[in-house]
Amino acid sequence: MTSLELTTDDAMSKGLVDEFTHCFTGECRVNVLQILFRINQVLTQNADLATLVSIILDGMRQQMRMQRGVMMLYDRHSDAIFIHDSFGLTEEERGRGIYAPGEGITGKVVETGKPIIIPRVIDSPDFLDRTRAHNKGRKQDKLAFFCVPIVLAQKVLGTICAERVYMNQRLLNQDAELLAMVASLIAPAVELYLIENVDKVRLETENRRLKSELKQRFRPTNIIGNSKPMQEVYAMVHKVASTKATVLLLGESGVGKELVASALHYNSPVADGPFIKANCAALPEALAESELFGHERGAFTSAIATHKGYFEQASGGTIFLDEVGELSLPTQAKLLRVLQERTFERVGGAKPVKVDVRIIAATNRNLAEMVAEGTFREDLFYRLNVFPITIPPLRDRGSDVITLADHFVTTYAAEIGKPIKRISTPAINMLMSYHWPGNVRELENVIERSVILAEEGVIHGYDLPPSLQTPTETGTGFSGTLEDRVTAVEYEMIVEALKASNGNVGQAATTLGLTRRMLGLRMDRHRLTYKTFRTAGLRPRN
Ligand SMILES: Nc1ncnc2c1ncn2[C@@H]1O[C@H](COP(=O)(O)OP(=O)(O)OP(=O)(O)O)[C@@H](O)[C@H]1O
To answer: Which GO molecular function terms does the record list (predicted)?
Structure first.
């Protein structure tokens, strides 16, 4: 037994007995079965999410004798997790409970899809107490916390979290297991609720978001994604944007370096000045110097007039040197001088030109390695590397993939003028499983293409390119054989038809051009049951 664990006698002597005596006797273990039984009962009666949640929260409070219980929903669109229902919190505390994935204990459970159990919550560095419910009352320091995800088809839809007086690890694990069971029972109902109440959920999140501190966290407006690694990027951008320090943006191709560069500029004191992009890889060797630093009239045969280079054009603003690792050694030497003295000469000129520019450079190359190989100047590397920011690859950003996909769907659907309501569950799984070598740029292209292909307002797995459907690359479990792919498409079409018909098999069969019996057989083969697709309040005649 750890020093934190209590015996019944300890508990009694400490006056905590009310909360859990019955749990030592095993009575509460029997009681909890009643909760499962009730949930199962109402699930078969087609009850709505509100009824289910009230049974769960009542059970947590009365049978399991918990101090606090919270059911949270994850709104992918706004990338926020908020309290849907709870006990043990005031209305005000409830309103403050809003998190981003990766943030605090709840955010971590949503990000990883794994439960978290903490014997003494106030000791946990991840515990944010955003609701501020822990400032009050005695026994707060004795509370254990556990949080389980509500997951369906690898998609985290929300969490059930609870606090109770700590007794011992075994009982805590048992409670968490029970809540995990409850979470998996109600997951289909939660998904239906989220689909059906998309607008309500969004409005609710937005209202809460407006009232919460989340609003105050810094995120450049056009950069999408709230994953932990991106929050670190935002924090760095926030720190350095207001200075004139040279910034080096590192990261694979397509991660959003240019977007971050523009965020740095537009949040800087020179935001009203020009933002000039110079793509060093696209500059032909012979013209690189003249493009960057300009030339005097007659400097070379085609120099018929004086030309201001990118540095002069950026004067009073920011120059963004993209792919800086591609510059030749002579051009690097000239760039070093600008960095040191903010002075250069135009090609063919002798007069020094002084500029006042903020320099942001970016590269997907390993500059330190290039220095070792002798292809990049060491002194220039140190001058550029004053404030490096590494933008993480998309595969390390968790649910940002879906947030970004949603964002691009909205953008391209509006551009093409085609209403797209949602991305199907199998398509979401494919997007989440893929390793995105081309990062956000690749995701953007994939979504643009799928918006063009999509029919009936839904992006399906088969609207995504074949590269996302190869098992070795995606890990989606689809093998390359024709039969397996046909099975995957069949599964998806049946799921969609059942969703659209609220679980009415007859109606779904008609949509699919099958008899009811044929569809029944196929549903058995895919282990699908119409109950999963029933919508609250509607009882289809099957
Ligand atoms: N977090 C993000 N939110 C929204 N759009 C993004 C995000 N990151 C990247 N994009 C979009 O993805 C595309 C590629 O981004 P960007 O050009 O900034 O990448 P990069 O790292 O500079 O690529 P490269 O190294 O190839 O120049 C752009 O259309 C950009 O708008």
So the answer is: ATP binding; sequence-specific DNA binding
